[in-house]
Specification:
Length: about 110
């Protein structure tokens, strides 16, 4: 019996370590794989998320990458493959990520 309780506790530990779900702020758009000026023949197979507010701030803080100033956008940014987070000004963040709806793979969501 005590082993069953221990097993149940160990299985519950990941859930105990996670935070409760929170609301998400931002926008999304449906599009094709080409971000700018896609040819009319490209199929709509991508969703791109623009995440803002506390969600973006939490993502920025959790990303291990060091911020780098990006000349193209004129602000600090952090990247992790196709996830891009930007700091507009101190305390104001936004993050971008796309998902290919055919494969489920993360894809780019911004040009710069």
């Amino acid at each position: 019996m005590k082993y069953a309780c221990l097993a149940a506790l160990l299985l519950a530990l990941p859930a105990l370590a996670e935070e409760a779900p929170k609301p998400l702020t931002g926008t999304y758009e449906m599009g094709s794989k080409t971000i700018l000026d896609p040819p009319p023949s490209e199929k709509i197979d991508t969703v791109r998320f623009h995440i803002t507010g506390k969600t973006a701030a939490d993502m920025w803080k959790a990303m291990p990458a060091k911020p780098k100033f990006d000349e193209c956008i004129g602000m600090d940014m952090k990247t992790a493959n196709n996830l891009v987070c930007q700091e507009n000004r101190p305390g104001d963040y936004m993050c971008f990520v796309g998902i290919n709806l055919r494969t489920g793979a993360a894809v780019g969501a911004v040009v710069c």
